[in-house]
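Listing S7. Sequence submitted for prediction.
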Amino acid sequence: MMATAAPTLPTGPDWSYEVKWDGYRAQAVKRGNSVSLASRNLKNISKQFPSVVRAVAGLSAKDVVLDGEIVALDGDGRPSFQALHHVELSGVSIVYYAFDLLHLDGRDFIREPLDVRRVALRKAVSDSAVLLSDALPGTPQQITNAVRDLGLEGIVAKRRKSIYLAGRRSDSWVKVRFARHQELVIGGYKGLGETLDSILVGHYSGKKLMAAGKVRAGLTPHLRAQLAGALKPLVTARCPFVNLPSARSSHWGEGITAEEMLELTWVKPKLVAEISFTEWTRDGSLRHAAFIGLRDDKRAVDVHREDSSRT
């Protein structure tokens, strides 16, 4: 089940509020002594997160399906999406925050109201290394202030009586991000020696890949080399974006001219990146974009523009 983006939180007694964690969405399944983790696009990611597998294996339930978020905590205990790609760094720990329960020891919960699922979830993860992402106390404004002060990504509002709609985006879950992030598909790059200088990203509108801007900020030397290695096998002669060139004259970062397209290397649109930015421009480009990290938990074809102002 996926949330709908919005600029503000819905209010009223029908709603409850949780932290929006900045990590990898994952379904955790325990069948007897067997544990598996599946990403949002149903990719098996169990080997990537052995500490989460161990935590789920420690549940007392014999048969359980959880929905939640794999989160990297830095040395200060703060969530860091980039740390998910650098778990070898000292002080980084990987945890699993469970926020929903789909099945428990022979009983299906997906058609039970959220409040009922939460009660059962709390019992299911008690006395284990699986962390509970529970409803937050207080008014929406108090919750917003507290989550902002902690520097967390945002809040998800959920209807207390809503059932679990697997594989669907629903307005029964509403997400509000404080820092604007967008998953985008990498469709090209500008090279610089053996690494790269910048990447060109976009999103799908129907079956068409629309260019959304160029990203250079956030690309450390290590990330540049890593990205170049991942992108080189995907090089293609064809530009994957349907809306280029996008300018007659521009500086790098303000559109792409036909001349600048000759300087770019195109790649098959396979890799998804998480990008932070300040706003969308009128022509559909990102302003002040910065690279955060690659996301292998979402298919490129599922990447669409999330514009909360239209919700």
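Caption to Listing S7: primary sequence and predicted structure tokens for the chain studied. The chain has two domains: 2-177, 181-310. The chain has five helices and 19 strands.
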